[in-house]
Amino acid sequence: MIVADRKIRVGRGFRAGxxxxxxxxxxxxxKPLDPKLHIGERLSCxxxxxxxxxxxxTIGHDVLIGSKVHVTDHNHxxxxxxGPHSSPDEPPTARVLSGEPxxxxxxxxxxxGVVVLPGSDIGDGVVVGANSVVRGHLPxxxxxxxxxARPIKRFDRTTGTxxxxx
Length: 166
Fold this sequence. Notes:
This protein is mainly β and 166 residues long. It has strands at 2-4, 8-10, 15-16, 21-24, 27-28, 31-32, 36-39, 44-45, 50-53, 56-59, 64-65, 70-72, 74-76, 97-99, 102-104, 109-110, 115-116, 121-122, 127-128, 133-134, 137-138, 142-146, 149-156, 161-164. Helix content is 0%, strand content 44%.
């Protein structure tokens, strides 16, 4: 296991293509942050993958990430919920960071071009199709596509096949 200043933990068997950007954001302006980026064993990333953590981001074991994938637990600005929201008059780099934990389960495949947004929870064995945007919960053992990604098939253990969801 690789531990970088207790902010990033990477399990054994990690592989990455060119252009990997693993970011643990430790400050929001002058405000200190305590990011926790935990990566399980045998993560395999293709080229140009960006994983950014300011709060909490967990990736399970045996995950495969395609090219040009972005996974983040934060936004530049506050845009939902109660409290003050970010103004479009403020430069994005000056806006407060907001976010929610991200969890990617075991044996997940994120195909090329997938974006995983703050607050996402991806169950074990999920396949996310190319260029999909994940927002919210994706149930285990489903094939999900779209913007936002939604389940279109579920793995049927009795037949060993992926069955359409009606």
